[in-house]
Specification:
This protein is an alpha/beta fold and 144 residues long. The chain has 5 helices and 5 strands. Strands 1-3-2 form a 3-stranded mixed β-sheet.
Length: 144
């Protein structure tokens, strides 16, 4: 999963760097929450075959809708013939840990508040309804 559909996800780069493997099928998935209440089902999903086992999936939700990735993967099969077995699918997620910086571009209390809010955010597995046992998180630390 990646926040930017036009770049290679850091999780993939970290996996290549540390494990030196590239899987037979790689899917880049981007989920966007739009500034409208609902995105109709027929406009929700775009699947693009990039080549040689690489795919790009773009998913759109409205701001009152709840993202559900397993449901999206079932739609991929129904609408595009791209099949996923949840027990054979691994989700690679980037996990960023935020830390206050030594050089404050914003007031220190705001940085600390932002760090606390980030730590208390709903985990991606829960937000996207991804089975926790199917996730590999590759992390990095970011100084604000």
């Amino acid at each position: 999963m990646t926040g930017n559909s036009q770049t290679v996800p850091l999780a993939l780069l970290h996996n290549l760097k540390h494990n030196k493997v590239l899987h037979r099928r790689v899917v880049f998935m981007t989920v966007t929450v739009e500034d409208i209440p609902r995105v109709h089902g027929r406009d929700r999903l775009t699947v693009e075959n990039l080549s040689d086992g690489f795919y790009r999936i773009s998913v759109r939700y409205g701001f009152i809708q709840e993202p559900d990735i397993p449901k999206v993967l079932r739609l991929c099969k129904a609408l595009h013939g791209l099949e996923f077995d949840m027990m054979d699918t691994t989700f690679f997620l980037g996990h960023e840990t935020l830390a206050p910086s030594a050089h404050h571009d914003m007031p220190e209390w705001r940085e600390r508040l932002f760090v606390v809010m980030s730590r208390n955010a709903v985990p991606a597995t829960e937000f996207f309804h991804i089975p926790p046992g199917r996730v590999v998180e590759l992390g990095s630390q970011i100084r604000l």
